[in-house]
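ok new one. same drill as before - structure tokens go in, u give me an amino acid for every spot. 318 of them this time. try not to just spam alanines like last time pls lmao
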């Protein structure tokens, strides 16, 4: 199956998904829609037992979600939002989007950004609920939305390379993760470890990520996809009923449901993104790194610490 930013190759019970959106390999609303369509096409296909998600890029898994799109959507909000206003808008958007034929209309108006938030959360929730094993083979930068996509997978293997890092740096430019990152990180690592990473906006190399339990294995580049496939083939022999039951039990084990946690995150993201600080941070990011301009991974990695130290913009001063 070949689509614009998502290419899938089937080999028996295994499906390998290649993310492809040059020059920066950004996650976009379009990519989320394509992943959603692909997921729906295999959701009830018992012949596919495991899915490996990687990138066609040589040094980038997913750089981050397209900040230009996030900023445009946030600017459509009627000023700075409070938490209750954000919750009200999200609930209304969700309700309207369930009316047959109305969802497509909403995507062309001011609710498109909010619809995108809801869509990415629903996509990741379905991965968690499916009777298939999802493995992220992280072969380059996985920041923001890239990290969140990896967190939505059941297993994470990461290339052990100086240009390969993972993390959620959103706090460094005035917003919070909006694709499940706060919930996925806290549920995986515990709130203490997650808070430190989220507040600092730290990114980790493969060894560091393995030590804290963010990824399962650090592998040399030549072994990454090979080992991910070997694991996928092995786990594809598990009973789909067993896989589904194990995933259901593991993902529902928190004190609150993941869906409730995601609602909290959705509202928090809208509040942060519509704020003056969030607008400032995203504007500066877009000014420096336009989405259609190639940016070497090594250059982006060199500049990230400036954001993380708060040297680019003074978000805490407002």
């Amino acid at each position: 199956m070949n689509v614009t930013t998502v290419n899938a190759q089937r080999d028996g019970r295994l499906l390998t998904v290649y993310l492809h959106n040059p020059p920066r390999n950004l996650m976009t609303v379009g990519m989320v829609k394509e992943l959603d369509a692909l997921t729906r096409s295999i959701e009830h296909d018992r012949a596919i037992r495991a899915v490996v998600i990687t990138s066609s890029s040589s040094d980038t898994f997913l750089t981050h979600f397209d900040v230009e799109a996030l900023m445009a959507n946030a600017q459509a909000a009627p000023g700075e939002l409070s938490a209750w206003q954000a919750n009200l808008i999200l609930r209304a958007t969700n309700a309207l989007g369930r009316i047959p034929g109305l969802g497509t209309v909403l995507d062309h108006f001011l609710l498109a950004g909010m619809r995108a938030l809801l869509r990415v959360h629903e996509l990741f929730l379905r991965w968690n609920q499916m009777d298939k094993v999802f493995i992220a083979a992280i072969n380059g930068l996985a920041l923001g939305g890239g990290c969140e996509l990896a967190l939505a997978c059941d297993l994470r293997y990461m290339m052990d390379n100086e240009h390969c890092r993972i993390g959620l740096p959103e706090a460094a430019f005035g917003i919070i993760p909006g694709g499940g990152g706060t919930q996925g990180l806290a549920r995986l690592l515990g709130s203490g470890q997650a808070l430190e990473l989220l507040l600092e906006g730290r990114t980790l190399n493969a060894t560091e990520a393995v030590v804290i339990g963010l990824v399962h294995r650090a592998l040399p580049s030549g072994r990454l996809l090979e080992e991910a496939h070997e694991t996928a083939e092995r786990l594809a022999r598990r009973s789909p009923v067993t896989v589904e039951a194990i995933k259901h039990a593991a993902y529902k084990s928190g004190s609150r449901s993941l869906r409730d946690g995601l609602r909290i995150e959705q509202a928090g993201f809208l509040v942060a993104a519509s704020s003056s600080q969030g607008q400032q941070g995203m504007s500066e990011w877009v000014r420096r790194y336009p989405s259609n301009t190639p940016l070497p991974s090594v250059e982006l990695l060199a500049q990230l610490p400036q954001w993380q130290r708060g040297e680019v913009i003074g978000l805490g001063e407002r």
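Strands lie at 6-11, 14-19, 50-55, 60-62, 133-138, 141-143, 155-159, 166-167, 203-204, 217-219. and btw The chain has 14 helices and ten strands.
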